[in-house]
Amino acid sequence: MEKIIEEINAKTDLAKITITSMPNVPGAASELFSLLGEAGFNIETISQFSCAKNFCDISFTIREKETDEVVEYLRSNVIFSDKELKSSIRASDILIDKNIALITILGKRIATTPGFAGKIFSTVAKLGVNIETISASLMMITFLVPKHRADEIVNTIKQEVE
Fold first, then answer.
1. Residue 76: which residues within 8 A CB-CB, separation 6 or more?
2. For 128-150, what is the mean pLDDT?
3. pLDDT value for 84
4. What global pTM score does this model have?
5. I need a surface site. Which of 14, 29, 58, 120 has the fewest CB within 10 A?
6. Looking at per-residue confidence, does 25 or 14 come out higher?
7. Does 51 share its domain with 26?
8. Where is the domain boundary, 97, 115, 142?
9. pLDDT band at 55 (very low <50, low <70, confident <90, very high)
10. Are residues 111 and 152 in the same domain?
11. In this structure, are residues 152 and 127 in contact, taking their beta carbons and an 8 Å threshold?
12. Could you tell me if 26 and 74 lie in one domain?
């Protein structure tokens, strides 16, 4: 029988940037990520959450070594300056977390295996680790965890779930 998990890895050279209280209007995410792309920044993952009263928090991961450059770009060109901007985006704050790892689980059978995501998340919970963000598709589950726990999580999932 074919394994559910074909590949699992941890990427620890990332940082998570969260932009808080960004307007939740059509085109805001498009504008933000288009500007970051035009500036040469490659975004690894994106999560939008905490939508209330027309505002949302949006997080994305980038290479950790680009953190200062991305934050400076955002502060001076996109959302926190009163001068004429390249963008109409406004937000409350930028939060930075350099203590993250992106766990990625790939497998063709993920979507057709009932309870698989629950089993993965239960395994992580048994280690006492809180998952920060989750993204899933038909063949992939990704989630952010504290960097110093990444190897332990990957090894435990390999032992208990594969």
1. none
2. 95
3. 47
4. 0.86
5. 29
6. 14
7. yes
8. 97
9. confident
10. yes
11. yes
12. yes
The pLDDT tens digits for 70-124 are: 999 888 766 554 444 455 666 778 899 999 999 999 999 999 999 999 999 999 9
Question: Are 115 and 81 found together in one domain?
Answer: no
Check whether residue 42 and residue 82 sit in a common domain: yes
Q: Could you tell me if 66 and 138 lie in one domain? A: no
- The DSSP string of the chain is ---S-SEEEEE-SEEEEEEEEEE--TTHHHHHHHHHHHTTPPP-EEEEEEEETTEEEEEEEEEGGGHHHHHHHIIIIISS-SS--S-----SEEEEE-SEEEEEEE-TTSTTSTTHHHHHHHHHHHTT-----EEE-SSEEEEEEEGGGHHHHHHHHHHHT-
